[in-house]
User: Fold this.
Amino acid sequence: MAQTAFKLYDDTMPPSEFEKMLAGELYSAADPEIQACAAAAFAWMARYNASLGLSEAARGDLLRQRLGKVGAGTVVRPPFHCDYGFNIRLGAGVFLNFNCVILDVVEVRIGDGTQIGPGVQILTADHPRDPDERRGGLEFGRKVTIGRNAWIGAGAIILPGVTIGDDALIGAGAVVTKDIPAGAKAVGNPARVRD
Assistant:
């Protein structure tokens, strides 16, 4: 089960499924409030993914309508896919190439100057290991953090709970299952730090 460092809700009342999701606790994605958030994100993605012919400034305005933070000079090339958008925080000068996917049931933080290749998947959504909990439709999230000036190669997959340090390089097609230290180069499946 997911561990949380803090609670986002008032302890005097039971938390909503949405509050449990944001806190990284087990929650039901079938909850109407969560479904409404997903529907709003889908409507936004339809607009954003049709914006390829617009200027970078116009696409930046669209990004700021949905994402939690968009730093100056950040570029996200459509198509782009996410669960909700509001849990994504992009620093200044971040670049996401075509067809990136961010499953942001909890926070995804990407530092200044980081470059992300096409087809990269950043996943915070996780599922219980217990089959009865999975049958019940429960899931949870684990935060992903990518530091400043990192480079994530095309088609890499960043799994839930991973932290990638500043200046790290992740090779194309790597599957990152564990934290990668600052300045390290990691390649393969599962990704391993190399010289």
